[in-house]
Prior knowledge:
6 helices, Leucine-rich repeat, LRR (right-handed beta-alpha superhelix), elongated, 471 residues, 31 strands, six-stranded parallel beta sheet
Amino acid sequence: MKLKLFLILGLLMGWMNSQAVTIKEVKTTSSGQLARLIDESYYSVDSLIVSGPINNTDMSLLKSLTQKGKLTGLNLKNSSIEKPCNYWFTNDPDAPDSLQVKLKYIYLPDNCSQLGDFAFANVKSLVGINMDITTSEYFTFHFPRRSLSGTSIKTIDFGVADLIFDPYALQNAVELETIKGLGPHTYFTSGALYNTPKLRGSASFDGMLWFGDRVFSNSSLDEIILPEVEQVLGEAWFEFAKAKKITIKSNGIWTIPPRAFFGCQNLKSLTLPGAIETLKSDCLNQTGLEILTLPEGLKFIESNVMGWNIFLREIVFPSTLISIGDRNGTYLRALEKIYIKAQTPPECMLSDPLDRDHSFTGANENATLYVPKGTLEAYRAAPGWNYFSKIEEFDFSDVEQVKALPANRPVISTGKGFMYLESPHPAPFTVFDMDGHSIQSGTVDGTLEVTLPAGIYLIKFGEDTQKVLVK
Length: 471
């Protein structure tokens, strides 16, 4: 009754307008019966409810109904697939008949475990795909390559299930807003979420086993949290993503690959896992970061890892750093401070100050380099570090001085229409206009986004007061 009501309401509310709704039910006693039970009249119905056993022959007939008939709602909840493999045959997304599919809502059988390749690719009408998972047993559902690409799916919610998304499974699903109920063994592979501009809000992908190339590329998620990813493949994970905050805590990741965060121009807060040893070329290129604190354990920074970060004001390099590649200072026009904790100056792979592509091209002109106490002369003599015009010692063992580091003090960054506040401990804040009137106040313990019109403001955050520009 509940499922029939779902189909009726779906038809009545929005996708059939004031037209009459035709619903038919058919019940099988054995698989392969649908051809005898369904006649030509079924090609004119709007919604069909099927119960009982079905097989691939039955599925072929149902597919024909969706391509040649008027079917917009299909309820298979109480049916059972004879061999629980592909629910939908592999489809040719470019074939004319696939574009004739009018389905908007579909309920899958309880024992369905996967779709077929390209199952609903480019079926623009499809907005809902549902399944009631009532078993307490281990359950995995598989979305093969491009199975829902180009659809109008808004929500994927299969309860608590392990979902496997093959390459480009949801590519260009431009209406997708939420994915709920991810199980502890969920997989996202290459490009699974490519170009899903409405997928937004805070999303935790806890328990994901692995993901590949461009999984979150062009994603509009505001915040992405990857706490327990065990293995990562591919490149350009978040390329051009719109997220303001990305957190990766898993110790199963040792390398940040090329273009991992390339073009993340909204990114204001980035937390990398402590097991990271290498940053590959271009992985942090052209972001919106204003503060970059790299984790202890990091050893190697390749060429042009952080170039073209035009908003970057401060960088903290760890004590474990061994080498840094060329072009890591390119167009860091806002850079004011570089903190390096290493007692021995890391090797600059291209250290000739006359070469425009040396390790800190541009960064040495305005930024102050802060080095560990007692190492000033070593850094002044070290190739690549020796052309910083301003080098000062910093006592990284002094608690009071360490409070000045970005990782320990409240940090303010701005973007188009917002001010982003971040603090590792509770810190009060008050925003004032230029006339001294208080606009907003509160306490930040973690992160907070304050929406503001474009203009210049004063903000007292923790112990510091500063003037900021909101674009």
